[in-house]
Every structure is written in structure tokens, then in C-alpha cells.
């Protein structure tokens, strides 16, 4: 009986000592992407609308018309940038880039100003204002 008890105690000890808690591993830190919209002017007076992703510049357009990026929104892998440029005497006009492809927003409105851009699902919302035939126009978006 003594031998059986000794063997049982030994087996119980082996089972108890062989059980280990799993070590918790620290999760990989998540580094968010940081986007910033803006523009720059070279020493030669050339203006560039651009944005920065994680401190790396992405040029959108270079022009003598003072282009600038005003607002940026990211949805999945799509990068939406809202900006404007200025004509010599007629004022500003709105511009929109999706993944670097330019779309003019205000072809028949001068001057025109852009505000903000927001993405909800597949819908893109842009705020701004413009003027046609000397009458104020406010974008419904």
C-alpha cells in the first residue's frame, strides 16, 4: 500500500509540475499611418500641392497657379485629397485627387473655395463655396 501511495504521489507531482502557463507574448505595436495635406514653394517660385504620409512627401501637382492641398481623407487603400489653385485674376478653383488622379471641381464657378472632405462607405462628401455670374453659390455637399 505504501508503494502504491508513493507512486500515486509521484505521478501527481509529475503532472502538476509538467503543467505550465503559456507565456503571454506582447502584441506587435500598431503604428498608425499619419497623413498631412499642404503645399510647398520652391526657391524658383514654383508651387506644389502635396501631402505627406508618414513624413514622406507625395507631390500631386506643380503649377504657377499656387496649388495647395487643403484636406485629406483615407478610406482603405484610397487616398482622397481636396485642394485648390488660383488663376491670375479670376480667383481660386477647387480640385480633388483620388489616388493622385486630378478632377477639377469648379469648372464654371470662379472664384471657388474648398472646405473639407469626408468619406462614408463609398460616398465622398466635399464642402465648399463658389460664385457664378457674380451670384454666390454654396455647394450642397
Q: Strand sequence of the main sheet, in spatial order? A: 4-5-6-7
Q: H/E series, N to C?
A: HEEEEEEEEEE
In angstroms, what separates the terminal alpha carbons?
88 Å
Helix content: 10-25%
Instruction: Work out the number of β strands.
Output: 10
Strand content: over 45%
What structural keywords apply?
three-stranded antiparallel sheet, 141 residues, rod-shaped, 10 strands, mainly beta
What does this structure look like?
By secondary structure, this protein is mostly beta strands. It has one domain. The chain has one helix at residues 2-18, and strands at 35-41, 47-53, 56-63, 68-75, 78-87, 91-98, 101-104, 112-120, 123-132, 135-138.
What is this structure's SSE topology?
Blueprint: H1 2-18, E1 35-41, E2 47-53, E3 56-63, E4 68-75, E5 78-87, E6 91-98, E7 101-104, E8 112-120, E9 123-132, E10 135-138
Antiparallel strand pairs: 1-2, 2-3, 4-5, 5-6, 6-7, 8-9, 9-10
Summarize this, please?
This protein has one helix spanning 2-18; strands at 35-41, 47-53, 56-63, 68-75, 78-87, 91-98, 101-104, 112-120, 123-132, 135-138. It has 141 residues and is mainly β. The protein is rod-shaped, with a radius of gyration of 30 Å.
